[in-house]
Amino acid sequence: MEPLKLNILGGFTLVDRSGAPLGLAAKKARALLAYLALAGGPVPRDRLATLLWEDRDEAQARSSLRQALSALRRALGDAADALRADTETVALDPDLVAVDARDFEAAAAGPSTTAQERAAALYRGDLLDGLDARAPAFDDWLRGERQRLLGLAIAVLGRRLDAALEKGADAAALQAATRLVVLDPAQEPAHRALMRLHARQGRRTDALKQYRRLETVLRRELAVAPEPETQQLYADILNRRDAPAATTSPAPAAAPSPRAPISDSAPAPELRQASVLYADLCGFTAMTAALDPEQVHAVTGRFFQVVDALVMAHGGTVHRHIGDNVMAVFGVPVAHGNDAQRAVATARAVHAAMAGMAADLRAEVGPDLDQNLAAHVGIASGPVI
Predict the structure, then answer these.
(1) What global pTM score does this model have?
(2) What are the start-end ranges of the H helices in 95-187?
(3) What is the pLDDT of residues 8-23, one digit of tens each?
(4) 375 and 354 Cβ atoms separated by less than 8 Å
(5) Could you tell me which of 138, 169, 162, 120 has the C-alpha nearest to residue 9?
């Protein structure tokens, strides 16, 4: 049987088995369906009620949840059995509802060119773009998920850009680089690739405009100038010298496993300027006494997810996880020229994300979680091997 299709990347559409759209106007019902679609299993009713109706007392929140579930069943029509609910939990059957965000994650993890192309096509924009559920806890969860999926999309497009440049496929490279700078306007290697591609194809004015766009973005968002390599490329194009072949450094990729072995084909050691970021949860060791092991795992797992996504989004690489700590590096293996500023921007983003993460976790773990859950973040910069 053909599953229903739920598209939540770039907006929200729900389509039945014949391809006809299914109406679901209520914003919180849409938010509920999307959350269930990404949950990957049954979710306690208490968590859903707190997530979407935290401003109401328990009885009212439970009643609102029942009304939203009724609205979902009506919208699903003949496929209402995809919604599995009992007195304690609610789940969405993944075999009966195809979700573009889930398909995107699976394709992004695939090693083949076909899988990467499919992932790039599936990412049509921010998760639930335009949805305002008017629920602070849900909004905090949504921000974290948007950042995580955006990081995956940037990594996918970076790999596509590298592959296209290696093959000399200018049209594919131009498309991948253009999408990269739309998703991450500070993605300097992608801007350089566009400058080279424009210049090589005789569009010198477009190449110079691309540099000025990058310069404006970097000064506004990070208060830095473009890297020396980019400035030299701009000078070469401005002076009508032949632009070098289009190449780019790889975009931030998915964080490696903390235990991943070092490859035998690793490059020879070299001295670089790098910034190391170290983030950990404040007072978490004392807090664990009030939590069971599954709750501890939920807290550390969510912390790693949030910090890892922010590190990758700012061009860094997650080096390892130790206990409740995350160690990340900026400038290795990819050097941007403004890696210290990127590390500082990541640290600020981690602190900004903590309040939302704490609210989300309290809905999941319970009141035993410290109300003042926060992070320590330290940064060290200097030459490294």
Answers:
(1) 0.63
(2) 100-108, 113-122, 136-167, 170-183
(3) 999 999 998 778 888 8
(4) yes
(5) 120
Amino acid code (one letter) for 225 = A
Q: Please compute Rg for the chain using Cα positions.
A: 23
For residue 227, what are the contacts with CB-CB under 8 A and spacing of at least 6? Answer: 188, 336, 337, 338
Among 100-104, 291-295, 373-377, name the most confident range. Answer: 100-104
Backbone φ and ψ for 48, nearest 5 degrees, come out as -65, -40
Beta strands in the chain (DSSP E): 4-7, 13-15, 43-44, 83-85, 89-92, 97-99, 272-281, 317-322, 325-330, 375-384
Tokens of 270: 């070299």
CA distances 259 to 255, 262, 309, 323, Å, are 11, 9, 18, 13
Are the C-beta atoms of residues 192 and 218 closer than 8 Å to each other? no
Overall size of the chain counted in residues: 385
Question: Residue 219's CB: how many other CB atoms inside 10 A?
Answer: 12
Q: 374 burial class (0-12, 13-18, 19+ CB within 10 angstroms)?
A: middle
